[in-house]
Amino acid sequence: MPKQPAAARRSAASRAAILEAAFELVGEVGYGRLGIEAIASRAGVGKQTIYRWWPSKGAVLFEAILVRGFGDGEEPVPLPDTGDLEADLRTVLRATALELASPEVDRPLRALTAAMVEDEALAEEYRIRVEEPTREAKRARLRSAQRAGQLPASLDLDIAIDAIFAPMAHRWLTRSGPLTEEYADALLETALNGLRHHGPN
Amino acid sequence: MPKQPAAARRSAASRAAILEAAFELVGEVGYGRLGIEAIASRAGVGKQTIYRWWPSKGAVLFEAILVRGFGDGEEPVPLPDTGDLEADLRTVLRATALELASPEVDRPLRALTAAMVEDEALAEEYRIRVEEPTREAKRARLRSAQRAGQLPASLDLDIAIDAIFAPMAHRWLTRSGPLTEEYADALLETALNGLRHHGPN
C-alpha cells in the first residue's frame, strides 16, 4: 500500500493530464510552437510540476506518444502471424500507410522526430524503448516465416526489415509521395520478391 | 555591368562568409545551439545583414548546404551510367554510406533535417530544389536501364527509387545500424532482385 494514497493519486492524475495536454497541443500548433507553459496551462498544473518530471518539452512529448502508442511500459504488439507472411505484412503496411497519412498521427510523430534529431539522449531512449522492441517483433515474424520456408534461412533479418519497412517511413518523412494502400502493396511486392530470391553471393 | 561593382562584391563576399560560417558552426555545435548571432560574429557581419537575406537560421543553413552539395544553383550531378546498372548503383550507394557515416556530412544533414521537420516552407523548398531534381536524375538512370533491358519496362520508377535508396536514408536517420559498404551491397542486391522479378499482378 502506498503511504500517501491521495497524493499519489493526485500525482498520477496530473501526469496523465500533462501527457494528454502535450499530445493535443502538438497536434494543434506543431512542435516548434509547443511550449511548456501552454501544456501546464491546459493541464491545470504549474510549470514547475512539469519540470519536476521531465527535462524538456521533447521528453514530455515522447512520453505522451509512448503512452498512446504502446500502453504505459507494455511490450509492443506482436505482428500478426496467420501463417501467410505476405498477407500479414500487407495488413501491417496498409494500416501503417493509413496511419501515417492521418493528421492525428502525422503531427505528433513529426514533432517527436524533430525533437529526436536535435536531442541525442531522447533519440537513444527512443531506440531502446520503441525502435528496438518494434524491430524485435518484426524479427520474430520473419523468423517464423523462415521456419515455414517462406523466406530463405540465410537472410539477414535487419536487411529484410529495412527493405520491407523503411521506404514507407522515408516517404512519410520526406513527403515524396502519397501514402496509399497501393503504395504499400507495391513496396511489399518488391521487397518480398527481392528477399525470396536472396541467395549467398 | 552592375552599377555598384564594389558594393556588389562586398555583398557576395558577405554572403559567402555567412554561409561558410553557418556550415562550420552547425558542425561544431549542432542545430539546436546554432545561433544567428554566432554566425554573424564568425562571418564578421552584423545580425541585420543576415536577416536581410534569410528569414531564419534554418534558411541560412539550407542555403549553406545547398551551395556545398550542388554548386550554387547548378543541376545535381547525374548518376553514373556505364551501361551496368548494378555496378553503377553499387558505386553510388557505397559512396552514400561512407558520406552519411562521416561526421562532416552527418551533422549538417541532421541539422537540416531538424530544421525541415519544423519548417514546412523550408521542407517545400528542399523538395523543389533538391529532392525532386535528385529523384529525376535517379529516374533517368533507371529509364536507361529499362531501355537496356536490365529492368522491366512496367516498373513504377518511384517505387523502384524508394526500394533502392530509402532504406539507407532511414537507417542513417534512425541510427538503427552501421552504414557500411556491406550494408549498401546487401540492400542493393535485395532491391534489384525484387525489381527484376517485378511483374503485373
Helix % of chain A is over 70%
CATH class identity of the largest domain in chain A:
Mainly Alpha
Distance between the termini of chain A: 61 Å
Number of domains of chain A: 2
Quaternary status of these chains?
homodimer
Radius of gyration of chain A: 20 Å
Structural class of chain A: mainly alpha
Shape of chain A: elongated
Largest interface: A-B, 42 and 42 residues
CATH fold call of the largest domain in chain A = Tetracycline Repressor, domain 2
Domain HTH tetR-type (chains A, B): 12-72
Keywords (chains A, B): DNA-binding, Transcription, Transcription regulation
Protein name (chains A, B): Transcriptional regulator, TetR family
GO molecular function (chains A, B): DNA-binding transcription factor activity; transcription cis-regulatory region binding
Description:
- 2 copies of one chain form a homodimer.
- Chain A has 201 residues and is mainly α.
- The first copy, chain A, folds into 2 domains: 5-70, Orthogonal Bundle (Tetracycline Repressor, domain 2); 85-196, Tetracycline Repressor, domain 2 (Orthogonal Bundle).
- Chain A contains 9 helices and no strands.
- The first copy, chain A, has helices spanning 5-29, 36-43, 47-53, 57-70, 85-101, 103-118, 120-147, 157-174, 181-196.
- Chain A starts with a helix and ends in a 5-residue tail after the last helix.
- Chains A and B meet through helix 6, helix 7, helix 8 and helix 9 of A and helix 6, helix 7, helix 8 and helix 9 of B.
- Chains A, B: It holds the Pfam family TetR_N.
- Chains A, B: GO terms for molecular function: DNA-binding transcription factor activity; transcription cis-regulatory region binding.
- Chains A, B: Residues 12-72 form the HTH tetR-type domain.
- Chains A, B: This is Transcriptional regulator, TetR family.
- Chains A, B: InterPro entries: Homeodomain-like_sf (IPR009057), HTH-type_TetR-like_transc_reg (IPR050109), HTH_TetR (IPR001647), Tet_transcr_reg_TetR-rel_C_sf (IPR036271), TetR_C (IPR011075).
